[in-house]
UniProtKB/TrEMBL annotation:
Reactions listed under catalytic activity: N-terminal N-formyl-L-methionyl-[peptide] + H2O = N-terminal L-methionyl-[peptide] + formate
Protein name: Peptide deformylase
Enzyme Commission identifier(s): 3.5.1.88
Enzyme class: hydrolase
UniProt-listed GO biological process terms: translation
Function: Removes the formyl group from the N-terminal Met of newly synthesized proteins. Requires at least a dipeptide for an efficient rate of reaction. N-terminal L-methionine is a prerequisite for activity but the enzyme has broad specificity at other positions.
Cofactor: Fe(2+)
Origin species: Actinoplanes nipponensis
Cofactor note as given: Binds 1 Fe(2+) ion.
InterPro entries: Peptide_deformylase (IPR023635), Peptide_deformylase_sf (IPR036821)
Keyword set, alphabetical order: Hydrolase, Iron, Metal-binding, Protein biosynthesis
Annotated family: Belongs to the polypeptide deformylase family.
Gene: def1
Length: 183
């Protein structure tokens, strides 16, 4: 099993934009496997490489019985329709806040082997794809909230058992290179 520790809110890697994947090699396939197994073990709908401390543009997803991953995603939106509903994050455990997202998304990217991939999502899949792509840009769902909702979410975070405001962010060692595989 290759379940890895998930970086929590406050870890600087979560606020750092990830680099594009350039090497589609066995290290990338290992990262995709680690993302998938860690996500499934944690019961999440998605997990991005920065959440494992890896600064690469790749994430895994498991929504509506569709399990997969995408490397170097680029998003487009076929319309302006929005959805508003509860959103959470494995890096911010126990905090769920209604968050506005686009209802439909198209993600262009690649598989772990470098083959072109197009992922079309609606509803929960669209929410997941947008959320995980935000992670690749150093953006958290908290950043998408209106002021009052963000204040409420921060109150929940400060009250959470896992949060320690007096301690610097815990940075865990990843078995993968932090800003690229094999570097």
């Amino acid at each position: 099993m290759t379940v890895q520790p998930i970086r929590l809110f406050g870890d600087p890697v979560l606020r750092t934009p990830a680099d594009a994947v350039v090497d589609f090699d066995k290290e990338l396939r290992r990262l995709v496997r680690d993302l998938t197994e860690t996500m499934q073990d944690s019961g999440g709908a998605g997990l991005a490489a920065p959440q494992l401390g890896v600064g690469l543009r790749v994430f895994a997803f498991h929504v509506d019985e569709v399990l997969g991953h995408i490397v170097n995603p680029v998003l487009s939106f076929p319309d302006d329709e929005e959805q508003d509903g509860p959103e959470g994050c494995l890096s911010i455990p126990g905090v769920y806040v209604d968050t506005k997202r686009r209802q439909h998304v198209v993600a262009q990217g690649f598989t772990e082997n470098g083959d072109p991939l197009q992922l079309v999502g609606t509803g929960l899949m669209a929410r997941c794809v947008q959320h995980e792509t935000d992670h690749l840009d150093g953006v958290l769902f908290l950043d998408r909230l209106e002021t009052a909702a963000r204040k409420d979410a921060m109150k929940q975070i400060r009250a959470a058992e896992w949060y320690d405001a007096g301690a610097p962010p815990t940075v865990k060692t990843s078995p993968h290179g932090i800003f690229g595989l094999g570097r």
